[in-house]
Amino acid sequence: MTNRFPHSPHEDSDYIGEATIVIRGTEVPAHVEIKGYREPIDGIFRWIGRISPNEQLTEILANQTRVRATIRTSHGARDAFVGDPDPWNRYRIIGKSTPPYHVPTEPDQGEDGSA
User: Fold this and answer.
1) What is the rounded distance in angstroms from the CA atom of residue 60 to the CA atom of residue 58?
2) What predicted TM-score, i.e. pTM, was given to this entire model?
3) What is the pLDDT of residues 62-71, one digit of tens each?
């Protein structure tokens, strides 16, 4: 049997896993998917992603569409913005800095930093 979906939409993600979203001092456990890239024009590393549906986050954000937050993973914590939700209630994450996950610096380096 052949795979009907050979390309997963998650295949290009840099980080998929658990995170803590900190908004106005409140910590919200969440599951996130993030992708980053270096902007070729200004050289700044930008990262974007989605937070899986989360009732606590929905209560905190209400109808706000751009809120400052800190995204924390086991690799680090970075300031970001949480944006509007998509139709599936997944909130957007937007950051501009070193991301809150490991970025390999060598071509053969794994996510945990080992070669």
Assistant:
1) 6
2) 0.79
3) 888 899 999 9
